């Protein structure tokens, strides 16, 4: 079977500085993969490389097709939705307008309206805040909005950059529960970047461990959780 | 956590939709009142004042174009006057050389402004914030000299004089009143178009690019197209304003389109409220009348007074007149909400 997303030997550059030193990873159809690593390991950079936001070399295949070198907006049109670090809220627009922007590439009005209801079903608090300026939403609400907005693209793959960042444990639990049902009900594959390793490993089937721009360990999460070094440095028990 | 019963929820939702309907009604009444006032205005004042209000109208159109570009799309231009010059000369040349009636110059002026705006907008994609402002400032600097240089087409420093439009259909009004109404009609159409555009997909794309460039692109918004499009629309509005300026003043010359014009437009845009449609009208009023007021106050140092007025404005209304009005409106809505 062809992997949904496959990175081979990807290097990425910020100007002359190389931030990724040839990483390879893959996400299976319908799978959830997490990328773990310390601050500055290159997790965000990996997602940016996939979305064509920075200069890269190597090969990036989505459903068997090379997407390397494509424009960011073209990557989105293929069905890859990016929930960026810091949430990327369009602050001066309302909640609903933010969601509409998620469906920017779509012309099927009725289906968009259905999906809007579906997002409000997952996140009822967003429905209450429909007309509110998105910049005035709480951090948790903005994270929900970022995920909901990505869902409006009807993606086949979602890239999530630290959705737990700065949120209370209860809200994080809630968001992860919803991510699981999005994966199960809507068949959306996910590439999840996280600091919260315990939670991410519970959700994901596969994990990749990044250190200074390189994959130092990978495998399915069940075995990784047993690993001594992972337990001490990432899970803390 | 308190759990509302379904009845309670429905009741509040009903009250809310009633309130929304009421507010929408007030807004509509206000808008209709304003339009009636605008139509009555030339019958209440002298021909000279009417001429000044005509200037307010077409300058408002140019400011609206700048608002779309800078306020909604976040691309700051210090060279918007160049597009006015373009439209003004398109109209002047069409009328003077080819004997085209004045009313047929509006659309070509807008179209040429649109095309020129798009072309300027293409390289502008690579420039952010201050750098774009500087580059467009260069455009403003160059405009008068370019106009003088192409003397064969523009008649150089001597400028072009055109005829004052006659009142059509034997209407019992003066020429100045007719010009006012002609300009008002175009303004209404263009403001209505801007409102529809900005409320729809295109407007959301503009604001998304301004608010979060990267996130917009990862939603599939084609910034490489929408940024020059904002320039094109801004250019079209300014082009139309330029044609109306030619028709109203019946004269164009290079030195009216210098740096000062472009900066004045930005001043008007900021005073009115840069990310607003209605603010453009206040911008137009400010551009035409603040110099007058300054002169009234001090014949000796009008520019000092002008400066003081600007500073006071920015202190009192940091988000422009429209921002101030919106704040009052929201306060009123909040009071209504707490009462119910
Ligand atoms: N815009 C940039 N310009 C230059 N260097 C950058 C830029 N963004 C990131 N880097 C560098 O690239 C490396 C990887 O950064 P990246 O943001 O991918 O880390 P991360 O794993 O996402 O970290 P965190 O968990 O803190 O978000 C870091 O050394 C960082 O300093
Ligand atoms: Mg990061």
- The low-confidence runs of chain B, each spanning 5 or more residues with pLDDT under 50, are none
Tell me, rounded to a whole number, the average pLDDT of chain A: 91
Task: Classify the secondary structure makeup of chain B into a structural class.
Answer: mainly alpha
Overall mean pLDDT of chain B stands at 91
The count of helical stretches of chain A stands at 10
Describe the main β-sheet of chain A briefly: 6 strands, mixed
| Fraction in helix of chain A | 25-40%
Backbone CA Rg of chain A:
17 Å
- Terminal Cα separation of chain B, in Å? 22 Å
Percent of residues of chain B in beta strands? under 5%
State the separation between the terminal residues of chain A, measured CA to CA.
37 Å
Query: How do the SSEs of chain B run, as a string of H and E?
Result: HHHHHHEHHHHEHHHH
- Return the structural class of chain A: alpha/beta
Describe this structure in words.
The complex is a heterodimer of chains A (237) and B (340). Chain A has 237 residues and is α/β, with parallel strands linked by helices. Chain A is built from ten helices and ten strands. In chain A, strands 6-7-8-3-9-10 form a six-stranded mixed sheet, with helices on both faces. Chain A is globular, with a radius of gyration of 17 Å. Chain A starts with a strand and ends with a helix. With 340 residues, chain B is an all-alpha fold. Chain B has a domain of 212 residues. In chain B, 78% of the residues lie in helices and 1% in strands. Chain B is built from 14 helices and two strands, in the order ααααααβααααβαααα. A two-stranded antiparallel sheet of chain B has the order 1-2. In chain B, α4 packs antiparallel against α10. The mean pLDDT of chain B is 91. The chains are: A alpha/beta (237), B mainly alpha (340). Chains A and B meet through α2 and α3 of A and α8 and α9 of B. Bound molecules: adenosine-5'-triphosphate and magnesium ion. Magnesium ion binds next to α1 of chain A.
């Amino acid at each position: 079977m062809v992997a949904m997303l496959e990175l081979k030997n990807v290097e990425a550059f910020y100007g002359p500085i190389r931030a990724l030193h040839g990483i390879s990873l893959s996400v299976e159809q319908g799978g959830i993969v997490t990328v773990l690593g310390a601050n500055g390991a290159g997790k965000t950079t990996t997602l940016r490389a996939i979305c064509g936001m920075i200069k890269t070399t190597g090969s990036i295949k989505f459903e068997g097709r090379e997407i390397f070198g494509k424009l960011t907006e073209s990557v989105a049109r293929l069905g890859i939705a990016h929930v960026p670090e810091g949430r990327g809220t369009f602050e001066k627009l309302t909640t609903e307008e933010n969601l509409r922007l998620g469906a920017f590439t779509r012309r099927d009005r009725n289906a968009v309206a259905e999906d809007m209801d579906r997002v409000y079903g997952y996140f009822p608090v967003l429905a209450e805040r429909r007309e509110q300026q998105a910049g005035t939403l709480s951090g948790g609400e903005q994270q929900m909005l970022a995920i909901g907005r990505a869902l409006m693209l009807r993606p086949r793959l979602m890239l999530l950059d630290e959705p737990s960042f700065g949120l209370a444990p209860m809200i994080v639990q809630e968001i992860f529960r919803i991510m699981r049902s999005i994966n199960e009900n809507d068949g959306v594959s996910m590439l999840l970047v996280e600091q919260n390793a315990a939670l991410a490993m519970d959700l994901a089937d596969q994990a990749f461990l990044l250190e200074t721009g390189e994959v130092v360990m990978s495998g399915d999460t069940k075995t990784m959780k047993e690993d001594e070094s992972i337990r001490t440095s990432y899970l803390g028990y | 956590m308190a759990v509302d019963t379904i009845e309670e929820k429905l009741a509040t939702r009903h009250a809310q939709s009633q309130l929304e309907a009421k507010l929408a009604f007030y807004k509509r009444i206000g808008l209709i009142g304003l339009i009636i006032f605008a139509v009555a205005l030339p019958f209440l004042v002298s021909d000279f004042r009417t001429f000044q209000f005509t200037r307010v109208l077409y300058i408002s159109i140019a400011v609206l174009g700048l608002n779309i570009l800078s306020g909604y799309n976040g691309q700051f231009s210090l060279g918007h006057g160049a597009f006015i010059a373009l439209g003004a000369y398109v109209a002047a040349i069409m009328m003077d050389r080819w004997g085209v009636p004045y009313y047929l110059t509006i659309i070509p002026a807008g179209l040429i402004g649109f095309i020129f705006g798009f072309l300027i907008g293409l390289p502008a994609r690579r420039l952010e914030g201050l750098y774009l402002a500087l580059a467009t400032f260069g455009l403003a600097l160059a405009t008068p000299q370019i106009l003088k240089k192409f003397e064969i087409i523009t008649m150089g420093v001597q400028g072009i004089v055109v005829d004052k439009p006659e009142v059509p259909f034997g209407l019992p009004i003066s020429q100045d009143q007719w010009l006012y109404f002609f300009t008002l009609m175009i303004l209404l159409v263009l403001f209505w178009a801007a409102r529809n555009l900005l409320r729809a997909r295109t407007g959301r794309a503009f604001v998304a690019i301004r608010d979060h460039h990267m996130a917009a692109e990862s939603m599939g918004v084609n910034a490489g197209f929408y940024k020059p499009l904002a320039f094109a629309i801004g250019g079209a509005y300014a082009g139309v304003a330029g044609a109306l300026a030619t028709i109203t003043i019946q004269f164009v010359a290079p030195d009216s389109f210098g740096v000062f014009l472009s900066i004045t437009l930005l001043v008007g845009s900021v005073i009115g409220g840069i990310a607003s449609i209605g603010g453009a009208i206040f911008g137009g009023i400010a551009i035409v009348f603040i110099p007058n007021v300054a002169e009234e106050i001090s014949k000796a140092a009008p520019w000092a007074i002008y400066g003081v007025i600007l500073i006071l404005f920015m202190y009192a209304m940091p988000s422009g007149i429209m921002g101030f009005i919106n704040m009052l409106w929201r306060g009123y809505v909040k009071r209504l909400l707490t009462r119910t």
